[in-house]
Amino acid sequence: MKVIVRRILREPVVHFMALGALIFAIDATLHPPARTDPHRIEIGKADIDRIRALYAQQWGAAPGAADMPNLVENYIRSEVLFREGVTLGLDTDDSVIRNRVMQKMEFLLQDATSIAQPSDAEMAVYLDRHAASYRLPEQVGFTQIYFSPSLRGDRAAEHARRALMLLQADPSKAAGVSGDPLMLPMDPSPRSREDLETDYGADFAARLLTLPTGSWQGPVRSALGLHLVLVDEHLPSRLPSLAEVRDRVHDDLMAERFRDGNDQAYAKLRSRYQIVVTPDASRAATTAIATVNSP
Asked: Rounded distance, CA 259 to CA 135, Å?
């Protein structure tokens, strides 16, 4: 028997197993398994640091030494109540808790997604691919003289026509033509049709876009009154250069890459699950959709 034992002890496999057992024993001693006792609440330095950080975030200053006992006790109270609630199943089917966990998972997916900064060539391709979103609208820059019906009454149209005749005869006399105050920006910088409609109404915007440049025209009626206008420039709709919209294109492209990265990360997570939709669930979903879409 002793001979057999000695032979066994000389086997390399036995030595390998013994060494593995020794390593396992040492690792178990140095790194004991985490406690799973649901009634044990262990507060470590990381917990204290988190408590301090949350207090500072809320109140704008670090907690004092006198505050810490109450803060720690509040943390213990929240942990006790949370664990007891989970034990009672209060977290089940709670949409608030469900949404909060989903949000945290979304943040984890974002943190795990590494996004490379786009090059100029990539941004140029993105700009061309989404040209409709970046195209600048047709714009008109104009100078105006306003005639208020509320101040001039029935004479507003006559005064505007007389002023127009004077301006068309000698445009240099524009400074001498007195109009009425208008509580709108008088800056002649180009403005889009949408902006014009907001301030003056759709009819004024449509008429202004048809006027020639370089000469006084009118009177053009708006929702506010009568205007003599000098169209300084008429800019057609165009696609801006990358230099004009670089920051916007960069942010939009980065956002798209983040979304794509999150979708890919989610697809990997979803692939771990077997999704089964029972026939009765399919019928219920179809009925619900039909009910929502019905007139």
From this structure: 24
Task: Let me know how long the chain is.
Answer: 295
Burial class (CB in 10 A: 0-12, 13-18, 19+), 91: middle
> Please, are residues 250 and 123 in contact by the beta-carbon 8 Å criterion?
yes
Q: How many CB atoms lie within 10 A of CB 218?
A: 20
182 CB contacts (<8 Å, ≥6 apart)? 144, 146, 148, 224
The pair of three-digit structure tokens given for residue 99, joined into one six-digit string: 């949404």
Helix and strand tally (H, E) in the chain? 13, 4
Helix (H, G, I), strand (E, B) or coil at 11: coil
- CATH code, residues 137-235: 3.10.50.40
Contact 257, 248 (CB under 8 A): no
Q: Which residues contact 47 (CB under 8 A, 6 or more apart)?
A: 75
How far from each other are the two terminal CA atoms of the chain, in whole angstroms? Answer: 91
Is the bond leading into 12 cis (omega within 30 degrees of zero)? no
pLDDT by position in tens, the chain (length 295): 444 434 444 554 444 444 444 444 444 444 444 556 777 888 888 888 888 888 888 888 888 888 888 888 888 888 888 788 878 777 777 788 778 878 777 777 766 567 788 999 999 999 999 999 999 999 999 999 999 999 999 899 999 999 999 898 888 878 788 889 998 888 888 999 999 999 999 999 999 999 999 999 989 999 999 999 999 999 999 999 999 999 999 999 999 998 888 888 888 887 887 767 677 766 655 664 455 455 5
Which pair of tokens denotes residue 164?
């127009």
**Are 217 and 230 spatial neighbours (Cβ–Cβ below 8 Å)?**
yes
